[in-house]
Amino acid sequence: MTPHAPRVFSGMQPTGNLTLGNYLGALRNFVALQEDDTFAERLYCVVDLHAITVAQDPDALRTAIREVAAAYIASGLDPKRSIVFNQSRVSAHAELGWIFTCVARMGWVKRMTQFKEKAGKDREEASVGLFSYPTLMAADILAYRATHVPVGEDQKQHLELTRDIAAKFNHDYGNPEDERGFFPLPEPLIQPETARIMSLRNGENKMSKSDPSDMSRINLTDTKNVIAQKIKKAKTDPEPLPSEAEGMIARPEARNLVGIYAALADMSVDRVLAEYGGQGFGAFKPALADLTVEKIAPIGDEMRRLMETPDEIDAILADGAGRAAALARPVLREVYDTLGLTGGGTA
Ligand code: TYM
User: Fold this and answer.
1) Looking at the chain, which terminus has fewer C-beta neighbours within 10 angstroms, N or C?
2) Beta strand segments in the chain, E
3) 46 - beta bridge partners?
4) pTM for the full model?
5) Active site residue 168
6) What is the tens place of the pLDDT at every residue in 279-291?
């Protein structure tokens, strides 16, 4: 048996502004993978069905879906070389998602830290969808038998659950003679340097689009002035930068800002510190602000340009969905047959 063909899948939620964290932790890697010939297909999804696990305004959601697609394209994804689409256009996600809610065990899903964070104190009021969210995520990936998933650190636990679901399905329904298994066990692709970009207001918290303070994050659509202001106001400490990375172990804000600089400049942290070690934030912040403006502002400009022609974005999403559905259809057909659901599925 030949192993499962290497295939990339990843997604982002259309729930408000994408941030520098989304960009450095994931999106930039989506673009880099376009140059990697190991993979025959790369699918990048706007996961709109995941977005409705919490309340969404329909008009705002419509715009947010297009905005994430615009961010993908503005960052360098080529919709010819990658498959760019939104989840709700391909019914295989919802269909396989249901099947996986019947494969995953309550105990596995209950362990998910993101549910605990997102549901907050009033867990009884959270939607059932928010709880079963990771089973739909497993379906996103496995509907294509994707083998590699570029994500930030916060998605690692969901990827482990995806692997558990795939392994249980393989064990329960797979052909024992097929060593590669019905589904591959997908690998997360996490870039250690940018796995967790932190808030600009508190270096212990992840940079997040849901943080109540807009000053905590750089949005991809922020103007040059806003980007520069946010970096200028970013929390720091009074010490100068050290000349070696060990000197930042107990300095989360310094570590975060130097890490962002290194990622945007494509430099190692050591090289950044060789240049700025011994200098205070008064010298470092303007350099970081200039670099962030240089790298991020053009993405926002391009997103605004693309958003002027929503029909063109919709056409890209429709084309991508057609190509994605063609890949998922035979997998779903096989899943239904395997389960004994004769003739099931429309995907
Ligand atoms: P989402 O929409 O929260 O985030 C999209 C991607 O951005 C990464 N990310 C970060 N990386 C580094 N530092 C940060 N501060 C930061 N904030 C966000 C996330 O790790 C993610 O890779 N459940 C997913 C969406 C999803 C998905 C999938 C991903 C649904 N189905 C299938 C991969 C494969 C999510 O909520 O990501």
Assistant:
1) N
2) 7-12, 41-46, 83-86, 148-150, 187-189
3) 12, 86
4) 0.97
5) no
6) 999 999 999 999 9
